[in-house]
What we know:
The chain has helices at 6-16, 42-52, 55-67, 80-90, 106-110, 156-166, 193-199, 206-217, 225-228, and strands at 93-104, 118-128, 134-142, 145-153, 170-174, 179-184, 187-190, 204-205, 240-241, 267-269, 273-274. The protein is α+β, with helices and mostly antiparallel strands. It has one domain (6-274).
Amino acid sequence: MSKPSMSGRLARAAAALTAATALGLAAAPSALAADGPAALTGGDLAAARGATQNPAVLDQLGHFFARRGVPPTQSLGISAADEAKAANAAAPRLAGDTVPVYTLDAAFVAGRPGARVAAVEFTATKAVAADGQTASVWTAEQNGAWRVVNIASGGDETDYAARAAADGGTAFREPQINAWYELKDGRVLPLEDSARRSVGAHGTTVAAYQQLVHQRYGDKLPGSAYDASGKAGGFRADAAPAPDRTTPAVAAGSVLGLTALAGTAIGLRRRKVRVKY
């Protein structure tokens, strides 16, 4: 049997983790085991990195940094020429490795046998401006090719991945509460304050974490009465924009979430989004 494509794997993940978006993306130990999420291949990461090096993406990054969070649909109060000059002065460059970004898997939440804790949602590459601003460039496989699908301010994705890797673990995110964890040696350890509030300063076991997220979201999974009622779209990876990182997309406005891939426009976001059930 041939190995399923990345787009196929993400499409299956999307069926389990539905998000309402205009631009979407397009999985991690037995429900109670402790081994880390399945990794992307070196070829996948190289192709993802190559997509971020496109001159058009670097130009988009320059404008992202020049606008400092002002949505493309709103005026900066300067001329287009001045914005272009500022974008050029931003001199964006890519820094560090392109890394897979893992997100809590709905199958794990449900307690499905063989499910892993987290699924690959996309890859991220840090970008740095001349004035020190940072951004995260998100890429995903789309119709057989890796494409940039979002640019978000800050470097959470790569920073937390590096911290966890340096400790011998794997970083993953519980997007409903915007918490970042490290999965290591059968334990789920906090990487920041939201995660500490979730599992405590010393973390918890994978088994205990599964029970915790099942309690939180088990009645909101696809096919549940909650999902059928249409409330918040059921179990959602991303929903309403958080105030610290989100701006409308470049072209038709979007919030990047975990769905089947659609569209090719690059989204621009100031930061993460959260779910409010």
